[in-house]
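STRUCTURE:
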């Protein structure tokens, strides 16, 4: 049985994620933002994109928006609408049923 021989050295792919990106992601994922209570998640996201945008806001529907070159004919808009499905646990029975 012949062995495959590789002559190319492979380099590890360089990640574009920084320590700051990982810290943001961890903080964002661990921040509860269920439907109707998204504001804390929006604040985290808007604070994170603040250095990269010229202006930012949230709309009446809970969408967080960052804009680059807001007065130019062509703008870049970064928007996100995120909420999660939430469950409120009121009681766990001795048998393990969740209510």
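SEQUENCE:
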């Amino acid at each position: 049985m012949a062995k495959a021989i590789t002559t190319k050295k492979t380099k590890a792919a360089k990640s574009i994620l920084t320590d700051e990106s990982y810290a943001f992601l961890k903080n964002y994922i661990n921040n509860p933002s269920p439907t109707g209570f998204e504001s804390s998640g929006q604040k985290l996201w808007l604070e994170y994109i603040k250095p990269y945008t010229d202006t930012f806001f949230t709309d009446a529907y809970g969408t967080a928006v960052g804009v680059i070159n807001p007065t130019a004919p062509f703008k870049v808009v970064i928007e996100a609408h995120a909420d999660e499905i939430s469950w409120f646990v009121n009681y766990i029975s001795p048998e393990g049923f969740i209510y």
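REMARK: Helices lie at 19-29, 39-49.
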